[in-house]
């Protein structure tokens, strides 16, 4: 079995287990090889041959067994900032709840305890905004959304985040 076939087989099994977006290190682990420059070159070749799609630097998806398009961006968010609190807030959450009339398209705004940054993916732009607020202060104002398997801000928290980040408040309905 070729290395490419082993990769596709591992990706198919990962999708059955709820996977879909994988880091370079995870893919190397699945194949039992080191994550070295030769492996990164192999992944680059798989992208060129159309077996993999690079969703953001260091993260890939199978083109044969891609994740669900509706939830793929949330999987990428969790991979990019794993190990820290992340929650959907700001304009994305207020649009979701109908508290602003504009529909945010092609962008997800996320508040994180990790680093700020913007990432352009095939599923849209992910905008991370760092918060210094303690988790104990934020947690009571969040709820878990099982559809995306992430936390979302309640209206009050999303508005507080907008004010804290000094973002445009004119679009609020009330």
TrEMBL record:
Source domain of life: Bacteria
Lineage, highest ranks first: Bacteria, Pseudomonadati, Pseudomonadota, Gammaproteobacteria, Oceanospirillales
Name of the protein this chain belongs to: Transcriptional regulator
């Amino acid at each position: 079995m070729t290395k490419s076939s082993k990769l596709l087989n591992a990706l198919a099994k990962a999708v059955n287990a709820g996977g879909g977006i994988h880091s370079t290190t995870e893919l190397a682990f699945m194949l039992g090889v080191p994550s070295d420059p030769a492996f990164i070159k192999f992944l680059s070749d798989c992208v060129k041959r159309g077996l993999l799609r690079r969703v953001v630097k260091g993260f890939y998806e199978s083109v044969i067994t891609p994740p669900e398009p509706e939830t793929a961006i949330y999987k990428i968010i969790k991979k990019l900032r794993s190990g820290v609190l992340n929650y959907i807030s700001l304009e994305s959450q207020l649009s979701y709840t109908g508290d602003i009339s504009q529909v945010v398209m092609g962008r997800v705004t996320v508040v994180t305890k990790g680093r700020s940054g913007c990432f352009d993916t095939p599923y849209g732009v992910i905008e991370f905004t760092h918060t210094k607020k303690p988790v104990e202060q934020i947690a009571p104002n969040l709820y878990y959304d099982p559809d995306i398997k992430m936390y979302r801000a309640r209206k009050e928290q999303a508005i507080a985040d907008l004010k804290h980040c000094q973002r445009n408040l004119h679009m609020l309905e009330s």
